[in-house]
Write a structure and sequence with these properties.
Blueprint (H helix, E strand, L loop, with lengths): L5 E5 L21 H12 L2 E5 L5 H11 L3 E4 L11 H10 L9 H8 L1 H10 L7 E4 L15 E5 L13 E2 L2 H15 L3 E5 L4 E9 L3 E3 L3 E5 L12 H5 L1 H7 L1 E5 L4 H17 L4 E9 L5 E8 L8 H8 L4 H14 L3
Parallel strand pairs: 1-2, 1-3
Antiparallel strand pairs: 4-7, 5-6, 5-7, 8-9, 8-10, 8-12, 10-11, 12-13
Helix pairs in contact: 1-11, 3-4
């Protein structure tokens, strides 16, 4: 592949540093955007920055000027709404511009937690018992759902809206937490069974042939002392909180048979949800080694040192090679 391919990196306006809009200097705390852009430049691509901003017409004009051979998509929202991420990719497809990562279908199916779990259930994939909690409707829990329940926004990601207070044990607490989600996010909530077990993250690369990377694990050692029960927002984004409660991210030690079963199930989830190029499946492994799918993450975090990059490095794929692999995989879809 010619290294002079022109790549436009599509980023959210809020992610662009005011003093460094071209991401030329390492920030105090490097993030995904800087890591990916730096890697692309090191590989030798001609890199431009594009953002949807507030006016989609400006994005169309910018891309028309840049004339990229590929858009590396790092956006997560448009107009303050994360559910609009699928529309940005749909726009790129209408403009006939190749783009990395998941298409509109996968972004829609993975974004809506209720819809995602309904679809996986139809395909005999084990998910927690769940029910939708629409805005403005009385909450009545189905008899076949087991307490405790986890209540969270139905259309967010990155553990937004999730804390230990999300775990509820009765209908009063359920109603209070549902109202909290409705009031603060203005969207439906989902209530799903809390699954006891190990929390595992499975990164996958590819399309026709899928490469399941080494499984990562988030371990919680202080649950009995009031520590986090799951990957809450603070667990993911607050290093001091993790240190306080001895929360650790590392590689999972799994028996061969268990790992093979996880690979099989996660590949099936990836294909059912029409994920492409790269993705991550989050699951709980119960004490009797049953696999319960929690979330499917299209276009997961690609920051250096995060789950996907760490898993790739474990197999000998350097960070630059990971970014190159995603580009090559994406471009093959347009041949």
């Amino acid at each position: 592949m010619a290294k002079k391919l022109k790549i436009s990196v599509l980023v959210d306006a809020s992610a662009i540093p005011e003093q460094d809009p071209l991401f030329e200097n390492p920030p105090e705390k490097a993030d995904t955007e800087y890591h990916v852009i730096e890697a692309l430049r090191k590989i030798g691509y001609r890199v431009s920055i594009a953002s949807p901003g507030k006016d989609i017409k400006e994005l169309v004009g910018t891309l028309s000027q840049q004339q990229p051979g590929l858009v590396f998509n790092l956006t997560e929202e448009f107009g303050g709404e994360r559910k609009n991420d699928k529309n940005l990719v749909g726009l790129l497809e209408l403009l006939d511009i190749p783009v990395t990562g998941c298409g509109p279908n996968a972004l829609m199916l993975c974004r809506d937690k209720n819809l995602c779990k309904e679809l996986l259930s139809l395909h005999k994939i084990k998910v927690p018992g769940f029910q939708s909690l629409p805005v403005g409707k009385a909450v009545k829990v189905h008899k076949n759902i087991n307490w405790p329940l986890v209540v969270k926004p139905a259309l967010e990601d990155s553990s937004e809206g999730i804390s230990n207070a999300s775990v509820v044990n009765d209908e009063e607490a359920l109603n209070n937490r549902a109202a909290f989600v409705h009031d603060n996010w203005g969207q439906p909530a989902i209530a799903e069974e809390y699954i006891e077990g190990r929390e595992l993250y499975v990164a996958i690369l590819g399309n026709k042939q899928l490469n399941v990377l080494p499984v990562r694990e988030c371990s919680f050692d202080s649950k009995e002392d009031g520590g986090p029960l799951m990957a809450t927002w603070k667990v993911k984004w607050d290093e001091k909180f993790r240190e306080k409660w001895n929360v650790n991210f590392g590689f999972a030690s799994l028996e061969d048979g268990v790992f093979e079963n996880i690979k099989r199930v996660c590949k099936k989830v990836y294909r059912i949800l029409q994920m492409r190029d790269y993705g991550r499946i989050d699951l709980r492994l119960t004490p009797n080694n049953k696999i319960v799918i929690l979330e499917a993450n299209p276009n997961p975090d690609l920051a250096y040192g995060e789950e996907v990059a760490e898993a790739a490095e474990k197999t000998g794929i350097s960070y630059e090679n990971l970014i190159e692999c995603i580009i090559r995989t994406a471009l093959k879809r347009y041949k």
